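Figure 2 data, in text form.
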Amino acid sequence: MPGFLRVLAVDDEPPALDELAFLLRADSRISRVHTAGDATDALRILRDHEVEAVFLDIRMPGLDGLELARVLRRFAAPPAIVFVTAYDDGAVDAFDLGVVDYVRKPVRADRLAEAVRRVLTRLLLPSPAAPAAPDDVSIPVELGGVTKMLARSTVRWVEAQGDYARLHTTAGSHLVRVSLATLAERWAEAGFVRIHRSYVVQLKLINELRLTNNGYVVIIDNTELPVSRRHTRDLKDRLVRAAKHHWR
């Protein structure tokens, strides 16, 4: 679809902004590229011009990219957001913002082209692509050197690994730079529960709660995960409440 998108590139570093704008202008699907060096300038451009997508750096002075993205989400017709960053520590905050893509610097033309494709998909097919419910939240993960968007609903359980967390899905696992405590707090409303200092699981996927010689374990996908003594009572109560709700 040539000449369809009007986009805004935001970065406080002029060389990075120039490179990003150059690559965006080289894409035949984009008709207009606005540029801004900070959030204030970006908001002014968005006030005066129609923009379908914002390609946004995260670490900027003043209002940073994450804060600006939260402002944009409150727009009556919010633009699609693509984070363009040299860091992965903003990934956890991107969980809740419904970003279309998470592109790592240095930006490659083919990777940016894929981000544009995802923006077009979001705009043309808003219903299945937009995160309308908690399970629809997308998580940026690294896979083969490329950042992919993983649906949170595919995560079966999460395992702590130091300051990182490993997301286990039916297709494999992914390491993200976020603490288990942070995920447990942010994902509680989506049905994830803490069962151990090292594990958070999807409550609805628990097949069995079993007492062993070493204490309680839960079974998810034929995998045993330990339940700590401090979390046992709460887990039992949650399972009972979930069962009662199911049989109403």
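Caption note: Helices lie at 14-25, 39-48, 65-73, 91-94, 109-124, 126-129, 180-186, 229-246.
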